[in-house]
């Protein structure tokens, strides 16, 4: 038998308490919007919406809302991903005295994202420091995300976030953004592999709520995420024989200078002097014995994009010369990743070491 007893008047919409014998009590909100959501959930015309909060049913016609299925949030690998990213952000921003405790609550307005990007990229964004209004927050987010787009330079892959999704505290979108930033800036962290979440998509159509579940892949393998391939001699060299690193660097410096000296150029630091791609382009022309038209690359690159263009162009010249695709990303070379630069140069050394 079910006993229904009215609760005292509250400031929020009226609530009734439903109690069953030997069962727990459940609060059911009965405002118009919540009743509408309840009816839609129970309607045979609409799939059941499990674990949807009342506020998630307050949608306009054709409006859509997404949320992570509660069971996915309890997955140990998902929890690990969130913790790793939180720790990384806090490490990066420690000098700013910023402490992030909850990703969706602390990053949605763009303030922390602005500081994070400025710290990682070594730049200063032209945005207001503090914005309280929703319009101001979205304007800041727009500026920050445009800067992210310029850095990531997506080619053929769609961005998994937007101003509205970030400002709407969509945790999936925020995680996609942070994972991409961690990959791009070679964050000194280990992201858990193969993290997938179930996302509930709620859509209102003809007055009824319809839901569907989709799988969202947040991370793949470390190799794919970080642009690395199978372990090679350079992994072994860095991990187990760092004392021999100077010998390898000296040999490569001798090799590149043998050719660059023809243009009165000289290299002393491999990781820095190849980072803008200019020497790589010129070196390919010297090794293959052709002149590279200056309009094909930036002789004095100033921006990150221009440097990446140069390195990417040099990689294209290598492919044209019959070399295998470099085991590095252009962004890694520009970001002064020594191991990536050594891989590229050693690839050239292997083929052209006997070229005069």
Describe what this molecule looks like in 3D:
By secondary structure, the protein is mainly alpha-helical. It is 47% helix and 11% strand. It has helices spanning 32-42, 70-73, 76-92, 103-107, 111-121, 134-152, 163-167, 171-184, 222-225, 233-240, 245-260, 270-273, 278-288, 304-320, 330-334, 338-352; strands at 2-6, 15-20, 26-29, 64-68, 196-205, 208-217. The chain has a three-stranded antiparallel beta sheet with strand order 1-2-3, with no helix packed on it. A three-stranded antiparallel beta sheet has the order 4-5-6. Helix 13 runs parallel beside helix 14. The chain is elongated. The N and C termini lie far apart (96 Å). Mean pLDDT is 78; it is low at 1-56 and 227-231.
- The strand line-up of the biggest sheet is 1-2-3
Distance between the termini: 96 Å
The topology string of helices and strands comes to EEEHEHHHHHHHEEHHHHHHHH
Overall, the morphology is: elongated
Rg on CA atoms, Å: 27 Å
Q: Helix- and strand-based class? A: mainly alpha
Structure keywords:
16 helices, 356 residues, three-stranded antiparallel sheet, mainly alpha, 47% helix, disordered N terminus
In short:
The protein is mainly α. Helices cover 47% and strands 11% of the residues.
């Amino acid at each position: 038998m079910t006993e229904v007893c009215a609760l005292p008047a509250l400031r929020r919409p009226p609530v009734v308490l439903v109690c069953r014998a030997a069962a727990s009590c459940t609060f059911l909100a009965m405002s118009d919007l919540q009743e509408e959501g309840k009816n839609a959930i129970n309607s045979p015309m609409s799939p059941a919406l499990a674990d949807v909060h009342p506020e998630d049913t307050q949608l306009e016609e054709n409006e859509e809302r997404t949320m992570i299925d509660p069971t996915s949030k309890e997955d140990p690998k998902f929890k690990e991903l969130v913790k790793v990213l939180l720790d990384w952000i806090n490490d990066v921003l420690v000098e700013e005295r910023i402490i992030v405790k909850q990703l969706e609550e602390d990053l949605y307005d763009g303030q922390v994202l602005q500081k994070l990007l400025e710290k990682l990229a070594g730049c200063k964004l032209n945005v207001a420091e503090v914005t309280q209004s929703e319009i101001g927050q979205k304007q800041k987010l727009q500026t920050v995300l445009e800067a992210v787009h310029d850095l990531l330079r997506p080619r053929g892959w769609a961005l998994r976030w937007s101003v509205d999704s970030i400002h709407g505290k969509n945790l999936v979108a925020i995680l996609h953004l942070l994972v991409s930033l961690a990959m791009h800036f070679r964050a000194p962290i280990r992201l858990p592999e193969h993290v997938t979440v179930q996302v509930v998509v709620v859509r209102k159509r003809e007055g009824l709520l319809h839901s569907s579940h989709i799988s969202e892949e947040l991370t793949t393998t470390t190799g794919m995420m970080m642009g690395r391939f199978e372990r090679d001699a350079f992994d072994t060299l860095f991990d187990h024989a760092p004392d021999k690193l100077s010998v390898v660097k000296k040999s490569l410096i001798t090799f590149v200078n043998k050719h660059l000296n023809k243009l009165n150029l000289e290299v002393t630091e491999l990781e820095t002097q190849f980072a803008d791609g200019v020497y790589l382009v010129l070196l390919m022309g010297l090794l293959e014995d052709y002149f590279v038209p200056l309009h094909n690359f930036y002789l004095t690159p100033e921006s990150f994009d221009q440097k990446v263009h140069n390195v990417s162009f040099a990689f294209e010249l290598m492919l044209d010369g019959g070399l295998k695709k470099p085991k590095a990303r252009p962004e890694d070379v520009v970001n002064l990743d020594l191991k990536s630069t050594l891989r590229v140069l050693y690839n050239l050394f292997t083929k052209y070491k006997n070229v005069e």
